[in-house]
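input
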Amino acid sequence: MKKKVFGLTLIFAIISSWFAPLQGHAITLGEYEQKLAEYKKEAQENKDSLNLTQQQINSANNQIKQLEAERSQLIEEVKKLNAEIEDYNNKIKDKLEESKQIIEYLQLSSGENVYLEYVFKAESTSDLIYRSAVVKELVDYNNRAIDEMKQIIEDNKDRQVEIEKRKVAISNNEELLTDKLVSLGEEKNVLDLAGIKVEEQIKTYEDMVAQYKKLGCKSSDVIGVDCAVNGDAGIFRRPTKTGYITQEAYVSYDWKGNVSYIHRAVDIGSRNSSSEKIYPVANGRIVFKGYDSNGALIVAIEHYVASQNTWYTSMYAHLSSFAPNISLGDYVTSDQYIGYMGDSGYSFGVHLHLEIFPCRMILGDPNCSSLGNFIEYGKKLMRNGYEGPRKLIYFPNGLYNSWNSR
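output
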């Protein structure tokens, strides 16, 4: 049970940090290296727990096989005991009949007491004793044989009772082992899932550390200050060369005036469909490249606006594929395409889901340090009247009014 709790806790921790911070405010490369080391440690611990669980599963399966083999042996033994009981019952009948015939022959023959005649024809006292003993010995022998066979029958019946008790115990043990296997199977599934998530995080942090090292960062360097310094975001532009808005960022309310739904993004369609290239809305650094929990391909880019001393994060969702040679940590310009429009994940048709909020999806930002925080912060801003991407980018007014340039 302890391992299962560990596995579930691990999964919840990983899911909650699915969009884990990928670059930090006043964060050193060494801190990311430490984070990578922690994930590798978790991966090893999970692997050890998984191996132990598999050993327990194998042990339980072997015990069940042994119990099944023992049950089969007991069933065969019962068959053998029943056959012996039947055989000895028949032998007892034969011995009883044999004793009866001896007595009848010696005592009653042609109406004369042959037994007495046989005894009293003895020529001496010793002969008399001998003849009497012979008759008694024959009868006693049969009686002893009958008693021995009756005892064997009773012993066999006692053994059958013991066997039935053992069969009940085997069934109970099998039931306990089967329940244990179910529990271990669930635990193994939890650990398998946890292992997958941890390996994904390891890959993310390995890529990130490698990219920052490629940019010349050392373990003690503060990212964005001592190395990997972002340039200014520049002008914010539309993310596609051709397109149109299919859905605005908006807040809807129920009849009581309570917020019922918030759409945090503008959705953009294009007549080019999945061949439409997606560009960054401004210069910046890639802070996420991967899948969300619904399977949508996503790129997230952070942008620094020097004139405002403000950071923004733009998120591009439902891509059909990434552009080649873009990696986590890369600095990209607004002229460098990052992928193609698509409908990956939870999507209704090919389009781009574009979100932009004034925060950073990083460890040091209290508002957007994870995807969950980014979403909640975006909702909060929308409830307070934030315009969404239109605040920074000019789009034609209304829906389905197209543009042909960025």
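quick obs: The chain has a mean pLDDT of 81.
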